Structures are given as structure tokens and as C-alpha cells.
């Protein structure tokens, strides 16, 4: 019920993860259709980049203003920080405060004067401003680090490497918020170099009990996880896409013209294959480098046909092998019979 600085930076991390989820799924999905020259009706979806900017912008972001308050000389309190937020973020559509220049929330009794509210991707969250400045400015003083580094115990000395006189840095240590922001940026950079797979877990109830399904809770999770938008984009587009070469290699045994070898461009081979199988034209599209299949049922049909064809090919190989083995044995027996008969006639 009471959200402070810790929950604020956790929700900031969740926003960044949601942002990269949008970048790597919804946005990339639609951009791929454009790259491949596929006819496509663009689907609008909410991009939470505006919320991330509200928090992490280097000039007007909440974290930047919090750091500025921590470094500012004079009397600095949580109230002065909130006052600064009310001045800078007053007109932002995802920031809400009773004391801001914007009078939209002046009569909102659900929002205390000492709090501000952010409309996150997952919904609105109210933060109690008390403790923000102290928690962000939670620094380990230099003289304490030096005292710990001089300890005789090796473990304590290893825990405070910044106390080493040879590594003394006269710069002010970074705040907790700036450290967390740098860590999140490193995480995002690392994720963008990978090919992540997303698994969305849905809690059926808050009791962690079996056989209880809370429909309202599940619907709420589906909305704030962005699954509805993801499903809308997926259903409006193509469920499966694959480069022409591996597609032809996987399904070429389904067509006599492409089996066992296709002489020509891979795209032409895929066209011949799909025409031979009689797949409706509305179920697939040819891109510049990939084949796009709209309905999963079409893919399941291809897989079933391939499975049956592999069984037929295995039967054919087994039949040929058994025929070769029996003929080889027959020829050997015939040769032996001729040898025995010739020797018998010689002594008869």
C-alpha cells in the first residue's frame, strides 16, 4: 500500500523490460513485414517509451531531479523534491500530483499532498515521497571505507576496496538512483544483443491454491502484461515465417518436382511446392527472403504431411534394403548350387 523509493526503481526496471519487450516483439514484428514487402495494415499499440523518459530523462527525468536535489546546497527535504517535480512534470500526461501547476488533481482526495502518482504501463501507482532523498543519497562515507580497509580481517578488507588509499577518488560517489539507472542500461544493452524468448506467467489466484480461478485477476494481468496487443498484432499478421532455403529443405519431399533435388532458386522451389500441395493463396505470402504462413493450421498440416512422407520414405528404404538382401542371398545360393552341381556331375 505504501510505495517508496525501492518500489519506484523496481517499477522503473519493469518499465524498461516492458519497453524492450515491445521493441523486440510488436515493433519488430511490424517492421519485418515492411522490410519483406508484405502487404500489411499497421496496428496501433501503446509504446511506454514516454513513461521511461519521464523517469530517466537526463534533464527533466524524476531520477535526474532527485540527484539534483541531493547535490544541491542548502536545505534539501523530500518536500522540496516533490515541489520540484510539481514544477517540471506538471504537464506530463503520466504524472499526477495534488500540488502541481496543473489543477487536474487538485480535488482528487485519493491522492495525498505528500505523494505523487505515475501512470505506468501496468496501471497507476502512488508513491509516498518521504524518504526518497535519504534513500537516494545513501552513501558510504570515504573515511568509513578507509577505516574498514585498514582492518586486519581479510574478508572485511576485501569488502571495502574503495578504502584503499591508492584508489582514493575525490569525486562524490554516485547516488543509488544513478547506480541503478546505469545497471538497468547495462542490462538493456545486454538483452538487445541476444535473442530472448519471453515466458509470461499468469497467477490464477492470490492464495497460491489449486483449482481456484479468479477471472478478474487473470484479465488484469493479461492487460498490464501487454498480451492483448501482442495477440492482436500476431493474429492480424502471420503466425510463422522462415527463410526459403530451410523451408524448401524441410518440406521438399512433399512434392515430386522438388524431391530429391531442386535445381533453381529456393523461392521458386517453395512456390512449386505450395502450388502442388494446393494450399490456398490467402494462407501464405512471399516476402523478399522469407515465406510467411498466416494460420498455424497450415503449418500443422505441412508437418503432418512431412511426418507421413518420412514414414513412407522409411518404408521404401526398408523395402529396397530387404529386396537387396534377399536377392544377394539368392544369388549366393544359386552360385553355390552351380558349384555343387558341377562337382556332382564330374564324379557321377
Strand content: 5-15%
Give the tally of β-strands. Answer: 6
Query: What's the level 1 CATH class of the domain at 5-138 and 174-193?
Result: Mainly Alpha
**Helix percentage:** 40-55%
Task: Write the H/E string, N to C.
Answer: HHHHEEEHHHHHHEHHEEH
Q: Could you say which structural class the secondary elements and strand pairing correspond to?
A: mainly alpha
Gyration radius, in Å: 34 Å
Structure description:
This protein is mainly alpha-helical. Among the domains are: 5-138 and 174-193, Methane Monooxygenase Hydroxylase, Chain G, domain 1 (Up-down Bundle), CATH 1.20.58; 240-299, Alpha-Beta Plaits. The chain is built from 13 helices and six strands. The longest helix has 52 residues, at 296-347. The model has no long low-confidence stretch (mean pLDDT 84).
Describe the structure using short key phrases.
mainly alpha, ATP-binding, 348 residues, three-stranded antiparallel sheet, elongated, 6 strands, Alpha-Beta Plaits, Methane Monooxygenase Hydroxylase, Chain G, domain 1, 13 helices, ATP binding, 7% strand
Q: Any chance you could write out the topology, listing elements then pairs?
A:
Elements: H1 5-35, H2 49-56, H3 62-71, H4 78-88, E1 95-96, E2 115-120, E3 123-128, H5 132-136, H6 142-149, H7 154-159, H8 176-192, H9 215-224, H10 227-236, E4 240-243, H11 244-251, H12 266-277, E5 284-286, E6 290-293, H13 296-347
Antiparallel strand pairs: 1-2, 2-3, 4-6, 5-6
Helix pairs in contact: 1-2, 1-8, 1-10, 3-4, 11-12
Give a summary of the structure in a few sentences.
Among the domains are: 5-138 and 174-193, Methane Monooxygenase Hydroxylase, Chain G, domain 1 (Up-down Bundle); 240-299, Alpha-Beta Plaits, CATH 3.30.70.1590.
